[in-house]
Amino acid sequence: MTDLQGCAAFCGPDKEQAWRQPYSSLHPKRESLCSKGNTRGDHYENRIFAGVPSEEMAGYAKAVIVGTTVYVSGTTGRDPDTGNFPDNAAQQARNALASIDKALRQAGGSLANAVVSRVYVVDQACAADVTAVLGEVFRDIRPTSTMLICEIPAPGAKVEIEITASLEC
């Protein structure tokens, strides 16, 4: 079974033909993501890449668009200019959310379209700092939310945020 057949089986028979069409033909009002710099071919047309080495190394995309849903990978809060992690967990959260918003805008949405947030922090102190930032950003949006305290496999990272968004919202 190919990935596309698996997705069609998961989504149901009425979705099968949609999976066989390029993203741009399903959403003619949106430019093809490939025309925005994602030159990996038609198979990747519904994917957004940030261009970081870990995408190639680990085989993932920054975001994947399925119909009107955008799934954004877990995003850490590196400073976009230096590539380093700020010492402050709140600033890392702001950086991560700005990066996620950039990917969502490439898909035709923004953080205002968030319906699910999953937040991973390294300790209770970081949780409090990050929660304040989430409250600022999502106060009027109100996605579902889960926060877990865990280890993040990037030295210096204190927070990682994953978002699912609906372009229908």
Topology:
Layout: H1 3-11, H2 16-19, H3 23-26, E1 47-48, H4 53-58, E2 63-66, E3 69-76, H5 89-106, E4 114-121, H6 124-138, E5 144-149, E6 159-166
Parallel strand pairs: 4-5
Antiparallel strand pairs: 1-2, 2-3, 3-6, 4-6
Structure, described:
33% of the residues lie in helices and 21% in strands. The chain is α+β, with helices and mostly antiparallel strands and 169 residues long. β4, α6 (124-138) and β5 form a beta-alpha-beta unit. α5 (89-106) crosses α6 (124-138). The protein is globular. The two termini are 33 Å apart.
Question: What is the compact description of this entry?
Answer:
With 169 residues, the chain is of the alpha+beta class. Helices cover 33% and strands 21% of the residues.
* CATH structural class: Alpha Beta
CATH architecture: 2-Layer Sandwich
Helix fraction?
Answer: 25-40%
Query: Globular, elongated, flat, extended or rod-shaped: what is the shape?
Result: globular
* Unreliable parts: 1-40
Sheet bearing the most strands, described? 6 strands, mixed
Count of individual helical segments = 6
